[in-house]
Amino acid sequence: MSDTPQSVVVVGASQTAAVAARTLRRRGFEGRITLVGDEPHAPYQRPPLSKELLNGGLSGADTEVLSETWCADNAVELRLGTAARRVDTAAGAVELADGTLVPGDRFLLATGARARRLPGLEKDHERIIHLRGLDDALRLRALLRPGGRLVIVGAGFVGSEVASSALAAGVRPVVIEQAAEPLARVLGADLGRFCGRLQRDNGVELHTGETVSSVRATSDGVVVTTESGLRAEGDAVVVAVGALPNVDVARNSGISVSNGVLVDEYCRTSLPGVWAAGDVANHRHPLYGRWIRVEHFDNANKQGMAAAKNILGRPTVHDDPHWFWSDQFGLNLQHCGQARTWDRMVVRGSLDEADFIAFCLADGVLTAAFAAERGGDIHAARELIARRATPDPALLADEDVELAQLVDASAAVPAGGS
Ligand SMILES: Cc1cc2nc3c(=O)[nH]c(=O)nc-3n(C[C@H](O)[C@H](O)[C@H](O)COP(=O)(O)OP(=O)(O)OC[C@H]3O[C@@H](n4cnc5c(N)ncnc54)[C@H](O)[C@@H]3O)c2cc1C
Question: What range(s) does the FAD/NAD(P)-binding domain occupy (predicted)?
Fold first, then answer.
């Protein structure tokens, strides 16, 4: 491998890939850039697929993130509708599914994730939808008709956003969720109840504690049943039960894989010359001191950028606390940090009025925050989390104390994790 990269091949042509390609050019890289993507579309954004694209506000073209024109002007070659099989660093190429070789001397895996299925329960059918790509969203949109019904399996963020968009399109959503409350596993019981109430108050028929036992498509609709005997009928069903990382290319290349492609803080995989970023990367996060894989737009952007800089030989650690947003039922929800372990929750504002920020603390250290309609507060919380701050819970809860003051008062700590 030469010291200076001459030709970068990115596997995957979506958010992470687009940001990486843009960063490479903006940082002065003049060599060859090729994006290999198995979807037929130029890179586009996925967040609108469950939101504005479904309730009519946006068209498919509006989701574009890197246009074919930009790619042509910046000599970024798009090989779309083309699946990659593996990276062969000895041969200096990515091998495509048809055996063709795409030459390169640096490689980025940005293969993302795919929708999880209900094992053994689903057959491929146009009315059974897994919302991951633009084509899925357009197919779903075509099935939404005012006065109709949509069954949604899973009340996570994607399922809830689809329910919200369905309502806005005049469709009655029936949501079936296995847990006692939506998102309680991640956010805890109180916030889970808040999310459940949000759905019900807005007219969603939400069934919790229900395990789906069959999904059947008929000539003009779908029938979903649960182990307890619940039967839900609709024009279509959206199965929104999470996502799985696309690790085949990494595995075929002999790269270490465990819940995604394992990468260090510089996005390096176990194979020299190959980096990974975005939804597929299980990243050794310096702030938390452990491997974490997330499916967040912001992470795709930041890791894509960091990976590109590292490919160019400019060591860049991606160590921001994670952040994502969700728009549903007229509310903007945001989350930052890692809520996996916490022993105390402090709420500022009111859950009943859907105007709050909830702080999660572990041994006094702020680890995560979740907010409704409080983007500014989330921004401050993110800074506190990055500093591993130990704010006084009474001050966190006190609306009269500016969070910016707590940020100013907290000393920055060196990265390293616990
Ligand atoms: C419906 C929906 C709504 C979302 N809403 C939000 C939101 O509100 N907020 C938020 O923070 N995040 C949201 N996200 C998550 C966000 O979109 C993802 O984090 C982001 O798209 C990840 O980008 P990526 O490029 O890493 O992976 P992906 O976007 O998954 O792209 C990977 C690409 O690689 C392709 N690929 C896979 N294998 C191969 C192969 N062998 N050869 C060639 N190509 C391959 C895939 O087909 C895909 O095109 C949402 C996601 C979805 C699906």
Answer: 7-304
For ligand 1, the distance from its centroid to the CA atom of residue 395, given in whole angstroms, is 38
- Among protein residues, the one with the nearest Cα to ligand 1's atom 27 is 112
Query: In the prediction, which pLDDT does 224 show?
Result: 96
Ordered structural domains, the chain, with CATH: 7-114+244-311 (3.50.50.60), 128-239 (3.50.50.60), 330-409 (3.30.390.30)
297, 298, 318, 332: which to mutate for ligand 1, most atoms within 8 A of CB? 297
List, for the chain, all residue ranges whose pLDDT scores fall below the cut of 70: 411-418
Q: Is 372 in the pocket of ligand 1 (CB under 6 A)?
A: no
Ligand 1, atom 30: nearest CA belongs to which residue?
112
Asked whether 291 lines ligand 1 (CB < 6 A), one says: no
Q: What is the 3 state secondary structure string of the chain?
A: CCCCCCEEEEECCCHHHHHHHHHHHHCCCCCEEEEECCCCCCCECCHHHHCCCCCCCCCHHHHECCCHHHHHHCCEEEECCCCEEEEECCCCEEEECCCCEEECCEEEECCCEEECCCCCCCCCCCCEECCCCHHHHHHHHHHCCCCCEEEEECCCHHHHHHHHHHHHCCCEEEEECCCCCCCHHHHCHHHHHHHHHHHHHCCCEEECCCCEEEEEECCCCEEEEECCCCEEEECEEEECCCEEECCHHHHHCCCCECCCEEECCCCECCCCCEEECHHHEEEEECCCCEEECCCCHHHHHHHHHHHHHHHCCCCCCCCCCCEEEEEECCEEEEEEECCCCCCEEEEEEECCCCEEEEEEEECCEEEEEEEECCHHHHHHHHHHHHCCCCCCHHHHHCCCCCHHHHHHHCCCCCCCCC
pLDDT of 121-168, one tens digit each? Answer: 777 899 999 999 999 999 999 999 999 999 999 999 999 999 999 999
Q: Is the CB of 278 under 6 A from ligand 1?
A: yes
